[in-house]
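Deliverable D5.2: sample structural annotation.
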Amino acid sequence: MVVLLSCTLGAVVGLGGGIIIRPVLDALGHHDVLNIAFLSSTAIVTMAIVSTYKKVKDGTKITVKIAAMISFGAVVGGMFGNLILEYLLTVFASEYTVRLIQTGLTVFFVITAIYFTNSKLQYRIKNEISYPFIGIILGTMAVFLGIGGGPINVPLFCILFGLSVKEATAYSIVVIFFSHTVRIITMGFTVGLLNFDVQYLLFILPAAIIGGFIGSMISKKLSENAVKRAFLATMWGLILFNIYNAVTFVI
């Protein structure tokens, strides 16, 4: 149910679903940090494939060159983000310290995303050399925080490339797919996929597929303002939920 609802909402507002899945699984307390990272990334990648296919089929235009260059950077960033996560887990004695760091940074980036989503700042970057570097930053933060990247991607794409919120959600999901695919591959080499709770994939994969289709159908029917309002409402809800998680970690 967590994955189904998260991926449905993620496909609507371009969040990928991970920003909901990770803190909810943290709160449930059934899995450790690495298992949550693996399970959420698997759900995110599955949803991204379904959602992107549906959006393109429904007529959403994606400039392949821009998406490819940013995604290339996101692939590199995804490797960096996963290495940072695994390094911090070896540095700190308690994984709750790492969860607290993730939660604090997530709240910071979500608040920043809300501010920039409401601002009227807009640039149109024409220097294509910068695209991969933007992707590296997005991929690193998305994978390290385990949030998919949407809260950062959507407002940044609107500001830097002059995209509408709906267009930005499509690009966001493409970038999310590449960064988290690399994360899964990296975790496979460093930890070993069989060391994760792979039995949960029997429930997670179908839920992510269904969520991706439902979310894309809803997104098609919503207006630009409705998608923006849904994005902002989700952001505020996530701030409150992450603050709750942070308090429980400290206590």
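Annotation notes: The chain has ten helices and no strands. The two ends are 27 Å apart (CA to CA).
The annotation will be released with the project's public dataset once the embargo ends.
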